[in-house]
Amino acid sequence: MKERIEVLLSAEQIDRRMAELADELYQEFGDEQVELVCALKGAVVTIVDLAKKMKMPVTMNFMSVSSYGNSTESSGNINIKMDLDADITGKNVLIVEDIIDTGRTLKKLKELLISRNPKKLKLVTLLDKPDRRVVDIKADYTGFTIPDAFVVGYGLDYAQKYRNLPYVGVLHFEE
Ligand code: XMP
Ligand code: MG
Fold first, then answer.
1. Global pTM?
2. Ligand 2 being an ion, which residues bring their Cβ within 5 A of it?
3. I need a surface site. Which of 68, 81, 130, 175 has the fewest CB within 10 A?
4. What is the CATH number of the domain that holds 41?
C-alpha cells in the first residue's frame, strides 16, 4: 500500500490561526503567567508554535500518555507514562492538544489536572474532529474543525512518520 498525503491546512493557514489563537488567549489570561501543558508527542509542534506567539510569560510542560500506538484507532484507556515535573496548584494552566478525536484521552487528562487544583484550566486544540466524539468534552479554543479523516503533519503521525510536515494533510492508502 502506498501512502499519499492530500494537503488539508497549509502552513500559512495554520500560522495565521495560531496568531489569532494567541490573541484570544491574551483576552483570557492577560499578562498573567500561563503553564502550557502538552501531551507528547503529537502536540509538540503546536505548543512550540503557539508559545512563540503568546505575549504573556509562559512555561512549557510535558507529559506522556499512551494513545494510538501504530494503529489509527484509539484504545479507549490512557496510561500516564511520564507525569509533569511542575506543581500546577493555583496556577493558570492551558492544555495544548494537537487533535481531539473520541475525546477519551483528553477527558482523563483534564480530570487528572483538575484534581491538582489549578487556579484556571483551559484547553486549546489545533484540530477538532467532532464527528468522532464518544465522551463529553469540548475545547475552549479550537484552531480548525475538520471532517472525520486520518490526518498527519504538524506533529501528527502515522507510525511515527510525518510529524515534521509543516502542514496538515489527510493520509490516503493506495494500491
Ligand atoms: P482520542 O480518541 O482519545 O485521541 O481523542 C486523541 C489522540 O489520538 C491521536 N489521533 C490522531 N493522530 N491523526 C493522528 O496522527 C489523526 O487523525 C488522529 N486522531 C486522533 C492523537 O495522538 C490524539 O492526541
Ligand atoms: Mg496527542
1. 0.92
2. 42, 98
3. 175
4. 3.40.50.2020
